[in-house]
Automatic annotation (TrEMBL):
Its EC number is 2.4.1.109. PANTHER family: PROTEIN O-MANNOSYL-TRANSFERASE TMTC4, PTHR44227. It comes from Urocynchramus pylzowi. GO terms for biological process: endoplasmic reticulum unfolded protein response. This is dolichyl-phosphate-mannose--protein mannosyltransferase. TPR repeats lie at residues 499-532, 533-566, 601-634, 703-736. Pathway: Protein modification; protein glycosylation. One of its GO terms (molecular function) is dolichyl-phosphate-mannose-protein mannosyltransferase activity. The chain crosses the membrane at residues 33-54, 131-151, 188-208, 220-237, 243-266, 286-305, 372-391, 403-424, 430-449, 458-476.
Amino acid sequence: QIFNQHNAEAPNLEPAFHRMAQMEPNLDHDVSWFLLPSYWAKMVVALISFLCFANSYDGDFVFDDSEAIINNKDLRAETPLGDLWYHDFWGSKLSSNTSHKSYRPLTVLTFRINYLFAGGFYPVGFHVINIILHCTISVLMVDVFSILLGGLQFSSKGRRLNLAPKSSLLAALLFAVHPVHTECVAGIVGRADLLCALFFLLSFLGYCKAFKENKEGHTFSVFWVLVSVVLGAIAMLCKEQGITILGLNAVFDALVINKINLLELIRKFMYKDKSLENAGLLRKGLLFRITLLMCGGAGILYIRWRIMGTGPPAFTEVDNPASFADSLFVRAINYNYYYSLNAWLLLCPWWLCFDWSMGCIPLIKSVSDWRIIALAALWFCLIGLICQALCSEDSHKRRILTLGLGFLIIPFLPASNLFFRVGFVVAERVIYLPSIGYCILFTYGFSLLSKQAKKKKILAVAVLGILLINVMRCALRSSQWRSEEQLFRSALSVCPLNAKVHYNVGKNLADKGNQSAAIKYYREAVRLNPKYVHAMNNLGNILKERNELHEAEELLSLAVQIQPDFAAAWMNLGIVQNSLRRFEEAEQSYWTAIKHRKKYPDCYYNLGRLYADLNRHIDALNAWRNATVLKPEHSLAWNNMIILLDNTGNLAQAEAVGREALELIPNDHSLMFSLANVLGKSQKYKESEALFLKAIKANPNAASYHGNLAVLYHRWGNLDLAKKHYEVSLKLDPMAPGTKENYNLLRRKLEQLQKKGG
């Protein structure tokens, strides 16, 4: 019925833009697939895309989510909204030398809205939005594929017709269930790709709407062309790839709207044929529309350049080793190998990994490397497809292949290393948009096989099997993205040579308190990458805590030798040197750390501890004061100031510092305890008692809290309450220093009072 309706309406259409797909062979004629009404097709796609990733809804914040969301101050209400336009995706200033220059303010804005509505960092809301976005994009794909595979045609009432309902449904299903999309959907940071894809598709559909004939009889609408440019700009503000839609709109205009034969155009241009206008290039409106797209794109890029600055992103060799190779040959051959790996992930998305850097893919350094075969296979296929796209006599075939290759290649260009260095080797997230081209080519290939096959149902069952396998793979991969432990461990079998994988497994184990297992993975990370300073730093920290100070010092010294501006390693080296009682070296290490990171409150805190050990009390107080200025909620620094002033008899100053600290951190029980001790010594017993009781309410199992409250009651003369809290303290910690002696003194005093009373 659908096809009869299209054929019945076609003769009534205007000949300019509205009949462009009528004379071409219908792709659906050869496709053995389900024919569903448009709204049912969209519901099926939405449901299946939801089922693929539904189990990720209650996952944790994992991997890059920590930096982009939890540690990103741009999400907090106290950060002005205007700052989002001058910060990168991770919350750093774009002008900073350490910025990755990833400018995605609209994505960060959605994270901020998530945070405000949830009232904090609760991952469920973040995950749900990602799942909804992917379902929405998958539904839009039905319309997009109907245009790309069936052409653009409108009914007499101005309604766009779906000339390939079966093919567009198949392609949309392939897109919806592709396992390579798991990182974008199940990883919250992947929202950048999802939002970019959403506005990317809306820009394309808006551009198509420009060719719906209006009441004045104009053949295209400038308004909708401009709308598509604006939507392309919004896509770019979500992620950099979004700008590529403007180029794809131009390709679509030339091939589908104007039906330009590229090979014929090239021939005429080379031979300076005066009939170039007959080739379609100078048809009315095409150059004008392409000029609008080019001017829009140039304007968007210029504004971004002015905001971002001219400095390139700061990446290291471990992020993208091929880009640091001295030989142009080595760079070129490895870039092409990376392209072949991306193509393989689209064809066979079984080996998926959260990170492909740090030795996961060793460099190809000679033509004798067997992996050269992958490059040859990639270019053999690409050249074959390009030849067919250019040289085929079948205009329908030329159009679909060219559009398929265009959507496969053009959105991938920003990640290709051709124009600028990128900070990764292979990244599954950047294949989200290029997979559109893969789905077009797969569907067209399926139609060709169906045309030749005698038993079409077997072929349809095989494709159904592929879809089912992909659904199961998506569900499995989504479950792995639910927690860092599962995610990191899943990568061990895929990239066993990746030092970052071992580092992240080790870090996850260390965070859970399993230091022995963490050491094993950190050592492997350092073995795989002897210059991995972060692994050295973390391993050195654990060894320091286990009192293996000499090995810790060796590792941390090597880390700062490899990366002299590594402030955290300098600070940790100072802590180790302090423990080894090499105080001058420790002080020098702390000051070197502060030199490289001027706002470093933890380092000032440790420097203060060093000065306290050396009885340099004024220097210690100044260091801790610096720590609290840089980080007002630095409880340990406040506590140490109160305790040092208390121990040196400066009770009034200790009381003032304690009250100042509690104003800033009113619920910190350790500060309540320290100030209560000072007030007790100043004979302000009532106020001291109130603070002790408040601290005990917050932390009832602290033996020292009960012990010191007992001392207060003992001094105050409230002996029964003193006895009660001494007993509680000894029950919690029978070895509490001084408590047993004080308790025995109290008991003797009570016995004496009883004798006198008797």
